[in-house]
Amino acid sequence: MLIPRAAAQYLRKMAKSWPIVAVTGPRQSGKTTLVRAVFPAKSYVSLEDPDELEFARRDPRGFLARFPEGAILDEVQRCPELFSYLQTRVDAAAKTGLFIITGSQQLGLLSGITQSLAGRAGLLQLLPLSVDELKKGNKEVKNPDTLLYQGGYPPLYSRNVSPANWHANYVMTYVERDVRQLINVKDLSTFQRFLKMCAARTGQLLNLSSLANDCGITHNTAKAWISVLEAGYLVFLLRPHHTNFGKRLVKTPKLYFYDTGLAAWLLGIEDAKHMAIHAMRGELFESFAISEMLKARFNRGLPSNLYFWRDNTGNEVDVLIEKGEHLTAVEIKSGRTVTEDYFSSLVKWRRISGSAGKQYIVYGGGEQYTRSHVTLLPWNRIAARET
Protein backbone atom coordinates (compact mmCIF):
# COMPACT_ATOMS: atom_id res chain seq x y z
CA MET A 1 0.00 0.00 0.00
CA LEU A 2 1.28 3.45 -0.95
CA ILE A 3 2.00 5.63 2.09
CA PRO A 4 0.67 9.18 1.46
CA ARG A 5 3.49 11.72 1.49
CA ALA A 6 3.07 15.07 3.19
CA ALA A 7 5.03 16.74 0.38
CA ALA A 8 2.44 15.83 -2.28
CA GLN A 9 0.31 18.90 -1.61
CA TYR A 10 3.24 21.27 -1.94
CA LEU A 11 4.48 19.45 -5.04
CA ARG A 12 1.13 20.10 -6.80
CA LYS A 13 1.29 23.73 -5.74
CA MET A 14 4.82 24.12 -7.12
CA ALA A 15 3.79 22.65 -10.48
CA LYS A 16 1.29 25.50 -10.86
CA SER A 17 3.99 28.12 -10.31
CA TRP A 18 7.17 26.82 -11.95
CA PRO A 19 7.96 25.44 -15.44
CA ILE A 20 10.21 22.84 -13.81
CA VAL A 21 9.85 21.19 -10.42
CA ALA A 22 12.96 19.52 -8.99
CA VAL A 23 12.69 16.85 -6.28
CA THR A 24 15.87 15.85 -4.52
CA GLY A 25 16.70 13.73 -1.50
CA PRO A 26 18.50 10.52 -0.57
CA ARG A 27 18.23 7.39 -2.67
CA GLN A 28 15.20 5.28 -1.77
CA SER A 29 13.40 8.15 0.00
CA GLY A 30 10.42 7.76 -2.33
CA LYS A 31 11.06 10.51 -4.91
CA THR A 32 10.06 8.47 -7.95
CA THR A 33 7.01 7.00 -6.23
CA LEU A 34 5.88 10.46 -5.15
CA VAL A 35 6.23 12.23 -8.51
CA ARG A 36 4.61 9.38 -10.44
CA ALA A 37 1.69 9.33 -8.00
CA VAL A 38 1.19 13.11 -8.16
CA PHE A 39 1.65 13.34 -11.96
CA PRO A 40 0.28 10.03 -13.31
CA ALA A 41 -0.44 11.44 -16.79
CA LYS A 42 3.15 12.50 -17.42
CA SER A 43 5.56 10.38 -19.42
CA TYR A 44 8.32 8.89 -17.30
CA VAL A 45 11.93 8.19 -18.19
CA SER A 46 14.83 7.21 -15.95
CA LEU A 47 18.36 8.29 -16.80
CA GLU A 48 19.58 5.29 -14.83
CA ASP A 49 18.63 3.38 -18.00
CA PRO A 50 21.85 3.20 -20.06
CA ASP A 51 20.02 3.52 -23.39
CA GLU A 52 18.06 6.58 -22.29
CA LEU A 53 21.19 8.14 -20.81
CA GLU A 54 23.14 7.65 -24.04
CA PHE A 55 20.26 9.12 -26.09
CA ALA A 56 20.07 12.16 -23.80
CA ARG A 57 23.84 12.73 -24.04
CA ARG A 58 24.15 12.24 -27.81
CA ASP A 59 21.02 14.09 -28.89
CA PRO A 60 19.50 16.25 -26.10
CA ARG A 61 17.07 18.01 -28.46
CA GLY A 62 15.83 14.75 -29.92
CA PHE A 63 15.53 13.23 -26.45
CA LEU A 64 13.33 16.09 -25.17
CA ALA A 65 11.31 16.30 -28.42
CA ARG A 66 9.71 12.97 -27.49
CA PHE A 67 7.83 14.75 -24.70
CA PRO A 68 5.74 17.59 -26.16
CA GLU A 69 3.65 17.70 -22.96
CA GLY A 70 6.67 17.45 -20.70
CA ALA A 71 7.78 14.47 -18.63
CA ILE A 72 9.20 13.13 -15.40
CA LEU A 73 12.98 12.86 -15.80
CA ASP A 74 14.39 10.63 -13.07
CA GLU A 75 18.02 10.95 -11.83
CA VAL A 76 18.56 13.83 -14.24
CA GLN A 77 21.89 14.80 -12.65
CA ARG A 78 23.43 11.88 -14.56
CA CYS A 79 23.14 13.98 -17.72
CA PRO A 80 24.21 17.56 -16.94
CA GLU A 81 24.07 18.36 -20.68
CA LEU A 82 20.27 18.33 -20.50
CA PHE A 83 19.92 21.35 -18.22
CA SER A 84 20.65 24.04 -20.82
CA TYR A 85 18.33 22.33 -23.32
CA LEU A 86 15.60 22.17 -20.69
CA GLN A 87 16.04 25.91 -20.22
CA THR A 88 15.49 26.56 -23.93
CA ARG A 89 12.52 24.20 -24.02
CA VAL A 90 10.62 25.68 -21.07
CA ASP A 91 11.35 29.25 -22.14
CA ALA A 92 9.81 28.54 -25.54
CA ALA A 93 6.79 26.68 -24.10
CA ALA A 94 6.00 29.26 -21.39
CA LYS A 95 4.03 26.66 -19.38
CA THR A 96 4.11 25.71 -15.72
CA GLY A 97 4.61 22.16 -14.49
CA LEU A 98 6.11 21.03 -17.79
CA PHE A 99 9.00 18.93 -16.49
CA ILE A 100 9.39 17.18 -13.14
CA ILE A 101 13.03 16.29 -12.51
CA THR A 102 14.46 14.20 -9.69
CA GLY A 103 17.96 13.57 -8.41
CA SER A 104 19.59 11.90 -5.43
CA GLN A 105 22.75 14.00 -5.44
CA GLN A 106 22.48 17.59 -4.30
CA LEU A 107 25.71 18.64 -6.01
CA GLY A 108 24.73 17.57 -9.53
CA LEU A 109 21.09 18.61 -9.41
CA LEU A 110 21.50 21.91 -7.57
CA SER A 111 24.49 23.03 -9.62
CA GLY A 112 22.50 22.33 -12.79
CA ILE A 113 19.58 24.36 -11.49
CA THR A 114 21.82 27.21 -10.36
CA GLN A 115 23.72 27.42 -13.65
CA SER A 116 21.01 26.78 -16.24
CA LEU A 117 17.59 26.81 -14.61
CA ALA A 118 17.75 29.72 -12.18
CA GLY A 119 14.30 31.27 -11.85
CA ARG A 120 12.70 28.39 -13.74
CA ALA A 121 12.73 25.56 -11.20
CA GLY A 122 11.13 25.11 -7.80
CA LEU A 123 12.89 22.75 -5.40
CA LEU A 124 11.48 20.17 -3.00
CA GLN A 125 13.68 18.09 -0.68
CA LEU A 126 12.17 14.70 0.18
CA LEU A 127 13.54 12.86 3.20
CA PRO A 128 12.54 9.38 4.45
CA LEU A 129 9.15 8.89 6.09
CA SER A 130 8.20 11.01 9.08
CA VAL A 131 6.31 9.79 12.14
CA ASP A 132 3.15 11.53 10.91
CA GLU A 133 3.41 9.92 7.47
CA LEU A 134 3.77 6.49 9.05
CA LYS A 135 0.67 7.15 11.16
CA LYS A 136 -1.41 8.26 8.17
CA GLY A 137 -0.19 5.28 6.17
CA ASN A 138 -1.27 2.86 8.93
CA LYS A 139 2.37 1.96 9.57
CA GLU A 140 2.68 3.62 12.98
CA VAL A 141 5.61 2.50 15.10
CA LYS A 142 4.66 2.73 18.77
CA ASN A 143 8.03 1.99 20.35
CA PRO A 144 10.66 4.74 19.93
CA ASP A 145 13.51 2.22 20.10
CA THR A 146 11.99 0.28 17.21
CA LEU A 147 11.73 3.44 15.13
CA LEU A 148 15.27 4.55 15.98
CA TYR A 149 16.55 1.12 14.94
CA GLN A 150 14.44 0.75 11.81
CA GLY A 151 14.53 4.32 10.50
CA GLY A 152 12.18 5.80 7.94
CA TYR A 153 13.18 4.59 4.49
CA PRO A 154 9.94 3.59 2.64
CA PRO A 155 11.11 0.13 1.42
CA LEU A 156 11.33 -1.02 5.05
CA TYR A 157 7.57 -0.45 5.36
CA SER A 158 6.50 -1.88 1.99
CA ARG A 159 8.67 -5.00 1.75
CA ASN A 160 9.34 -7.99 3.96
CA VAL A 161 13.01 -7.20 4.55
CA SER A 162 15.07 -6.92 7.71
CA PRO A 163 16.51 -3.46 8.52
CA ALA A 164 20.00 -4.97 8.86
CA ASN A 165 19.94 -6.55 5.39
CA TRP A 166 18.38 -3.52 3.76
CA HIS A 167 20.83 -1.02 5.26
CA ALA A 168 23.80 -3.24 4.40
CA ASN A 169 22.73 -3.32 0.76
CA TYR A 170 21.97 0.40 0.82
CA VAL A 171 25.47 1.29 1.97
CA MET A 172 27.03 -1.07 -0.55
CA THR A 173 25.00 0.45 -3.38
CA TYR A 174 25.64 3.99 -2.21
CA VAL A 175 29.40 3.49 -1.93
CA GLU A 176 29.75 1.57 -5.18
CA ARG A 177 27.63 3.89 -7.33
CA ASP A 178 27.12 7.37 -5.97
CA VAL A 179 30.37 7.96 -4.12
CA ARG A 180 32.49 6.83 -7.07
CA GLN A 181 30.58 9.23 -9.31
CA LEU A 182 31.49 12.17 -7.09
CA ILE A 183 35.00 11.42 -5.89
CA ASN A 184 37.86 9.06 -6.62
CA VAL A 185 37.75 6.62 -3.70
CA LYS A 186 40.59 4.17 -4.18
CA ASP A 187 39.92 2.14 -1.05
CA LEU A 188 36.22 1.54 -0.43
CA SER A 189 36.89 -0.07 2.94
CA THR A 190 38.44 3.20 4.16
CA PHE A 191 35.35 5.12 3.09
CA GLN A 192 33.09 2.63 4.84
CA ARG A 193 35.18 3.03 7.99
CA PHE A 194 34.78 6.79 7.60
CA LEU A 195 31.00 6.32 7.44
CA LYS A 196 31.04 4.28 10.66
CA MET A 197 33.24 6.85 12.40
CA CYS A 198 30.73 9.53 11.41
CA ALA A 199 27.91 7.47 12.94
CA ALA A 200 29.92 7.20 16.17
CA ARG A 201 30.13 11.00 16.22
CA THR A 202 26.42 11.64 15.77
CA GLY A 203 25.34 14.67 17.81
CA GLN A 204 28.91 15.82 18.42
CA LEU A 205 30.78 18.91 17.26
CA LEU A 206 32.46 18.08 13.97
CA ASN A 207 36.20 17.60 14.49
CA LEU A 208 37.62 16.92 11.04
CA SER A 209 41.18 16.45 12.29
CA SER A 210 40.15 13.76 14.77
CA LEU A 211 37.94 12.08 12.18
CA ALA A 212 40.76 12.10 9.63
CA ASN A 213 43.29 10.69 12.11
CA ASP A 214 40.97 7.86 13.14
CA CYS A 215 40.46 6.88 9.49
CA GLY A 216 44.04 7.34 8.33
CA ILE A 217 43.18 10.04 5.79
CA THR A 218 44.08 13.71 5.39
CA HIS A 219 42.08 16.60 6.80
CA ASN A 220 41.17 17.74 3.27
CA THR A 221 39.98 14.26 2.34
CA ALA A 222 37.76 14.11 5.44
CA LYS A 223 36.33 17.51 4.52
CA ALA A 224 35.62 16.37 0.95
CA TRP A 225 34.01 13.12 2.12
CA ILE A 226 31.74 14.94 4.57
CA SER A 227 30.60 17.09 1.65
CA VAL A 228 29.81 13.93 -0.33
CA LEU A 229 27.73 12.53 2.56
CA GLU A 230 25.87 15.86 2.75
CA ALA A 231 25.29 15.85 -1.01
CA GLY A 232 23.81 12.36 -0.79
CA TYR A 233 21.51 13.35 2.10
CA LEU A 234 23.10 10.88 4.50
CA VAL A 235 24.33 13.44 7.02
CA PHE A 236 23.67 17.10 7.76
CA LEU A 237 25.59 19.71 9.70
CA LEU A 238 23.61 21.72 12.23
CA ARG A 239 25.15 25.18 12.34
CA PRO A 240 25.60 27.21 15.52
CA HIS A 241 23.37 30.26 15.86
CA HIS A 242 25.15 33.59 15.60
CA THR A 243 23.40 35.27 18.53
CA ASN A 244 25.96 36.52 21.04
CA PHE A 245 24.95 37.37 24.61
CA GLY A 246 28.32 38.64 25.77
CA LYS A 247 29.95 35.23 25.74
CA ARG A 248 32.23 33.65 23.19
CA LEU A 249 30.29 31.31 20.92
CA VAL A 250 31.21 27.91 19.56
CA LYS A 251 31.49 28.18 15.77
CA THR A 252 31.83 24.51 14.88
CA PRO A 253 28.79 22.68 13.43
CA LYS A 254 27.35 19.46 14.84
CA LEU A 255 27.14 16.27 12.80
CA TYR A 256 23.85 14.35 12.48
CA PHE A 257 22.36 11.59 10.33
CA TYR A 258 19.09 12.20 8.53
CA ASP A 259 18.05 8.62 9.24
CA THR A 260 18.75 6.87 12.53
CA GLY A 261 18.18 3.42 11.04
CA LEU A 262 21.20 3.86 8.81
CA ALA A 263 23.30 5.25 11.68
CA ALA A 264 22.20 2.36 13.91
CA TRP A 265 23.32 -0.19 11.32
CA LEU A 266 26.68 1.57 10.98
CA LEU A 267 27.04 1.41 14.77
CA GLY A 268 26.35 -2.34 14.80
CA ILE A 269 23.06 -2.06 16.72
CA GLU A 270 21.29 -5.39 16.26
CA ASP A 271 17.66 -4.73 17.21
CA ALA A 272 15.32 -2.49 19.22
CA LYS A 273 16.34 -4.13 22.52
CA HIS A 274 19.98 -3.42 21.76
CA MET A 275 19.03 0.18 20.88
CA ALA A 276 17.36 0.63 24.28
CA ILE A 277 20.63 0.02 26.14
CA HIS A 278 23.13 1.33 23.60
CA ALA A 279 25.50 4.10 24.66
CA MET A 280 24.57 6.15 21.57
CA ARG A 281 20.80 6.01 22.11
CA GLY A 282 20.60 9.58 23.38
CA GLU A 283 22.51 10.99 20.41
CA LEU A 284 20.45 8.95 17.95
CA PHE A 285 17.24 10.17 19.60
CA GLU A 286 18.50 13.74 19.20
CA SER A 287 19.32 13.07 15.54
CA PHE A 288 15.83 11.63 15.02
CA ALA A 289 14.10 14.61 16.63
CA ILE A 290 16.01 17.19 14.59
CA SER A 291 15.42 15.21 11.40
CA GLU A 292 11.67 15.21 12.15
CA MET A 293 11.79 19.00 12.42
CA LEU A 294 13.60 19.20 9.08
CA LYS A 295 11.01 16.94 7.44
CA ALA A 296 8.22 19.25 8.64
CA ARG A 297 10.03 22.16 6.92
CA PHE A 298 11.12 20.40 3.73
CA ASN A 299 7.69 18.83 3.12
CA ARG A 300 6.32 22.37 2.81
CA GLY A 301 9.10 23.51 0.53
CA LEU A 302 10.79 25.54 3.26
CA PRO A 303 14.55 25.63 3.95
CA SER A 304 15.99 24.68 7.31
CA ASN A 305 15.69 27.34 10.02
CA LEU A 306 17.31 25.17 12.69
CA TYR A 307 20.47 25.95 14.65
CA PHE A 308 22.00 25.06 17.99
CA TRP A 309 23.45 27.48 20.53
CA ARG A 310 26.49 26.95 22.70
CA ASP A 311 28.92 29.29 24.43
CA ASN A 312 32.46 28.71 25.66
CA THR A 313 31.32 28.11 29.23
CA GLY A 314 29.25 25.06 28.27
CA ASN A 315 25.78 26.63 28.18
CA GLU A 316 23.90 25.01 25.32
CA VAL A 317 20.48 24.68 23.70
CA ASP A 318 19.98 21.67 21.42
CA VAL A 319 17.92 23.51 18.79
CA LEU A 320 17.07 27.15 18.13
CA ILE A 321 14.30 27.68 15.59
CA GLU A 322 14.60 31.05 13.89
CA LYS A 323 11.42 32.72 12.64
CA GLY A 324 12.17 36.31 11.74
CA GLU A 325 13.52 37.92 14.90
CA HIS A 326 11.91 35.30 17.14
CA LEU A 327 13.80 32.31 18.51
CA THR A 328 12.18 29.13 19.79
CA ALA A 329 14.35 26.97 22.04
CA VAL A 330 14.07 23.18 22.00
CA GLU A 331 15.79 20.69 24.29
CA ILE A 332 15.82 17.00 23.35
CA LYS A 333 15.80 14.28 26.02
CA SER A 334 15.52 10.59 25.20
CA GLY A 335 14.22 9.47 28.61
CA ARG A 336 10.55 8.70 29.25
CA THR A 337 10.48 10.20 32.75
CA VAL A 338 10.67 13.99 33.04
CA THR A 339 13.08 15.24 35.72
CA GLU A 340 14.15 18.72 36.86
CA ASP A 341 17.40 18.30 34.92
CA TYR A 342 15.41 18.43 31.69
CA PHE A 343 14.65 22.11 32.31
CA SER A 344 18.08 23.35 33.40
CA SER A 345 19.38 24.36 29.95
CA LEU A 346 16.18 26.24 29.13
CA VAL A 347 16.29 28.06 32.48
CA LYS A 348 19.85 29.17 31.72
CA TRP A 349 18.83 30.14 28.19
CA ARG A 350 16.03 32.36 29.49
CA ARG A 351 18.41 34.03 31.93
CA ILE A 352 21.25 34.56 29.45
CA SER A 353 19.16 35.60 26.45
CA GLY A 354 16.29 37.36 28.17
CA SER A 355 14.10 35.57 25.64
CA ALA A 356 10.40 35.14 26.27
CA GLY A 357 10.01 32.98 23.17
CA LYS A 358 8.37 29.57 23.07
CA GLN A 359 10.26 26.68 24.63
CA TYR A 360 9.86 22.95 24.15
CA ILE A 361 11.28 19.72 25.43
CA VAL A 362 11.03 16.77 23.07
CA TYR A 363 11.25 13.61 25.16
CA GLY A 364 10.80 9.85 25.02
CA GLY A 365 7.50 9.81 26.90
CA GLY A 366 3.94 9.78 25.60
CA GLU A 367 2.14 12.72 27.22
CA GLN A 368 2.00 16.31 25.98
CA TYR A 369 1.64 19.01 28.64
CA THR A 370 3.05 22.33 29.84
CA ARG A 371 5.23 22.74 32.90
CA SER A 372 7.23 25.77 34.07
CA HIS A 373 6.33 27.65 30.86
CA VAL A 374 7.76 24.81 28.77
CA THR A 375 5.73 22.53 26.48
CA LEU A 376 6.74 18.88 26.71
CA LEU A 377 6.29 17.07 23.41
CA PRO A 378 6.31 13.27 23.09
CA TRP A 379 8.70 11.78 20.53
CA ASN A 380 5.77 10.98 18.21
CA ARG A 381 4.21 14.46 18.38
CA ILE A 382 7.13 16.58 17.18
CA ALA A 383 5.10 17.81 14.20
CA ALA A 384 2.60 19.35 16.64
CA ARG A 385 5.14 22.08 17.29
CA GLU A 386 5.11 25.13 15.04
CA THR A 387 7.91 25.05 12.47
Could you characterize the architecture of this molecule?
The protein is of the alpha/beta class and 387 residues long. It has 2 domains: 8-125, Rossmann fold (3-Layer(aba) Sandwich); 131-384, no CATH class. 43% of the residues lie in helices and 17% in strands. The chain contains 17 helices and 13 strands. A 6-stranded mixed beta sheet has the order 8-9-10-11-13-12. Strands 2-3-4-1-5 form a 5-stranded parallel beta sheet, with helices on both faces. The protein has a two-stranded antiparallel ribbon with strand order 6-7. Strand 10, helix 17 and strand 11 form a beta-alpha-beta unit. Helix 5 packs across helix 6.
Number of helices: 17
Percentage of residues assigned to helices: 40-55%
Uncertain stretches: none
Largest sheet: 6 strands, mixed
Global geometry: globular
Strand order of the largest sheet: 8-9-10-11-13-12
What is the number of beta strands? Answer: 13
Oligomeric state of the chains? single chain
Radius of gyration: 22 Å
Q: What average pLDDT do the residues reach? A: 91
Number of domains: 2
Cα distance spanning the termini: 29 Å
> Proportion of β residues?
15-25%
Structural class computed from helices and strand pairing: alpha/beta
Q: Secondary-structure element order, as H and E?
A: HEHEHHEHEHEHHHHHHHEEHHHEEEHEEE
Secondary structure elements and their pairing?
Elements: H1 8-15, E1 20-24, H2 31-38, E2 43-46, H3 50-58, H4 60-65, E3 71-74, H5 82-93, E4 99-103, H6 106-116, E5 121-125, H7 131-136, H8 144-150, H9 155-158, H10 163-182, H11 188-200, H12 208-215, H13 219-231, E6 235-238, E7 254-257, H14 260-266, H15 272-277, H16 281-298, E8 306-310, E9 316-323, E10 326-333, H17 344-353, E11 359-363, E12 369-371, E13 374-378
Parallel strand pairs: 1-4, 1-5, 2-3, 3-4, 10-11, 11-13
Antiparallel strand pairs: 6-7, 8-9, 9-10, 12-13
Helix pairs in contact: 5-6, 8-14, 11-12, 12-13
